[in-house]
Amino acid sequence: MSGQPKIDFRDLNAKTETEVLARVHIFESLKNEDGALEFLADCMRVKKLEKGDTLLTEGDPGTDLFILTKGLVSIYKKTPDGDTFKVAILGADQLPVLGESGIVTDELRSATVVCDDSCQVLVLSRKDFDCFANQNPKWALPIFRKITGMLAGRLKKLNHDLILLHEALTKEIRGS
């Protein structure tokens, strides 16, 4: 990250990007890999946003992964009728990863993320992740596994929710 603004990580009780990355769940397997987190940190850049800024927009293409390192964001989803509703609020203390599917697929963004106050994120582009993965496949494989595990977990939850919805609709139609 040389030549870029540095993030002040004191709010996270960390001094460096690598200390922060070691606490991010999709990178935790790299903690004991000598030089891995440093190499990954060099692939990332810092982005600062203001209150009200939109980090991600549902339906837009995206190829960046973001790690919230300062501030709060709200996650919004649109209904089929076009209504928007808030589904979550995430804080930097959780070091949430946002837009992770962007570095592995060409799918459109699945939600809108808006800054609730001044925010800072670490950004990893697909291009830079691909470079990291090609040079260090041993380090990249666990990251791919974490991301696919997260996506599979969301699919499992969605399937469960659809079954519950089907059961509720069936009961409503039957009048029981």
Please name the defining characteristics of this protein.
176 residues, alpha+beta, Jelly Rolls, 4-stranded antiparallel sheet, 8 strands, 24% strand
Outline the structure in words:
The longest helix is centred in the last third of the chain and has 38 residues, at 137-174. Helices cover 35% and strands 24% of the residues. It has a four-stranded antiparallel β-sheet. The chain contains four helices and eight strands. A hairpin with a 5-residue loop joins β4 and β5. By secondary structure, the protein is α+β, with helices and mostly antiparallel strands. The radius of gyration is 18 Å and the shape is globular. It has one domain (10-151): Sandwich (Jelly Rolls), CATH 2.60.120.10.
CATH class: Mainly Beta
Overall strand count: 8
- Low-pLDDT windows of residues: none
Mean pLDDT: 89
**Please, what is the CATH homologous superfamily?**
Jelly Rolls
Q: How does CATH name the architecture?
A: Sandwich
How does the major sheet shape up? 4 strands, antiparallel
CATH topology: Jelly Rolls
Q: Per DSSP, what share of the residues sits in E-state strands of 2 or more residues? A: 15-25%
Large-scale geometry? globular
Strand order of the largest sheet: 1-8-3-6
Determine the number of helices (DSSP H or I, runs of at least 4 residues): 4
Q: How would you classify the helix and strand content by structural class?
A: alpha+beta
Rg calc: 18 Å
Helix content percent band? 25-40%
Q: What's the end-to-end separation, in Å?
A: 61 Å
Pattern of helices and strands: HHEEEEEEEEHH
